[in-house]
Amino acid sequence: MAWFKRKEKGIQTATENKKDVPKGLWYKSPTGKIIDAEELAKNFYVSPEDDYHVRIGSEEYFSILFDDAKYKELDKNLTSKDPLNFEDTKKYVDRLKDAEAKTGLKDAVRTAVGKSFGKDLVVAAMDFKFIGGSMGSVVGEKIARAADYSLKNNVPLVIISKSGGARMMEAALSLMQLAKTSAKLAQLADAKIPYISLCTDPTTGGTTASFAMLGDINISEPGALIGFAGPRVVRDTTGQELPADFQTAEFLKEHGFLDFITHRKELKTNINLYIDLILNQAIRN
């Protein structure tokens, strides 16, 4: 029936009852490729037409790495405080409450232990959607505790970085986490327990300056942005024009900062292969 005749016939559907296509059923990649959201999930959140790796969070990485997506979360109720009574455009305590309400997360990292190809594995996965994946006291503490669990139980550790850097609202307390996490990873190295660092899009700032680049093997997903300062800052500081692919995973691998770039479909297999390689080398030594 034509729209202009509907009112005459007494047909008036309320706006809230109209059957529009629900949001989230389709995903459009930056290159313009469109894929059904369900198919995207089945394809490890990688667009099949252009191979674009969509940003995902800790829950998705846990489901990829752990057998049957089964795991035990560690220190799940750890939350940030506000010892500095920080306030910019919003009070820090209010910002934390809003982030938790919007994301359902307690902070920017989750840690868990489970089986991966039948072997115990500890995974710390960062979530960018919680205040830009910024590294504050809770992030540092949970990573340190994950390393402690690995040390106590002789279990390999994987850290999946996705961060905008240190959390400015915690100032020096945030910067202290660089040294804290680095010291814990040094203990893992002394104990010859494998630590694999996975850099995803984006891995920047203090995260890159600490645990993200301290793996026995440093790997990345294709096309990930990885760096310390942004390209504009680097350009202004050096006074030089930067390559078009500057701070991409491919650029870093070419210059020796990464060991390997892995497709997400092969992530679980490759991480376990690297762990076996490190363990075999440790046994021979």
UniProtKB/TrEMBL annotation:
It catalyses: N(6)-carboxybiotinyl-L-lysyl-[protein] + acetyl-CoA = N(6)-biotinyl-L-lysyl-[protein] + malonyl-CoA. Keywords: ATP-binding, Cytoplasm, Fatty acid biosynthesis, Fatty acid metabolism, Lipid biosynthesis, Lipid metabolism, Nucleotide-binding, Transferase. The keyword Oxidoreductase does not apply. The keyword Phosphoprotein does not apply. GO terms for biological process: fatty acid biosynthetic process; malonyl-CoA biosynthetic process. Its main location: cytoplasm. It is found in: Cytoplasm. InterPro entries: AcCoA_carboxyl_beta, Acetyl_CoA_COase_Trfase_b_su, ClpP/crotonase-like_dom_sf, COA_CT_N. Pathway: Lipid metabolism; malonyl-CoA biosynthesis; malonyl-CoA from acetyl-CoA: step 1/1. Gene3D superfamilies: 2-enoyl-CoA Hydratase, Chain A, domain 1 (3.90.226.10). One of its GO terms (cellular component) is acetyl-CoA carboxylase complex. PROSITE patterns: COA_CT_NTER. Transmembrane segments: none annotated. Residues 24-285 form the CoA carboxyltransferase N-terminal domain. Pfam families: Carboxyl_trans. One of its GO terms (molecular function) is carboxyl- or carbamoyltransferase activity. Its EC number is 2.1.3.15. Signal peptide: none annotated. Coiled coil: none annotated. PANTHER family: ACETYL-COENZYME A CARBOXYLASE CARBOXYL TRANSFERASE SUBUNIT BETA, CHLOROPLASTIC. Acetyl-CoA carboxylase is a heterohexamer composed of biotin carboxyl carrier protein (AccB), biotin carboxylase (AccC) and two subunits each of ACCase subunit alpha (AccA) and ACCase subunit beta (AccD). Component of the acetyl coenzyme A carboxylase (ACC) complex. Biotin carboxylase (BC) catalyzes the carboxylation of biotin on its carrier protein (BCCP) and then the CO(2) group is transferred by the transcarboxylase to acetyl-CoA to form malonyl-CoA. Belongs to the AccD/PCCB family. HAMAP family: AcetylCoA_CT_beta. This is Acetyl-coenzyme A carboxylase carboxyl transferase subunit beta. It comes from Leeuwenhoekiella aequorea. The lineage of its organism: Bacteria, Pseudomonadati, Bacteroidota, Flavobacteriia, Flavobacteriales. The gene is accD.
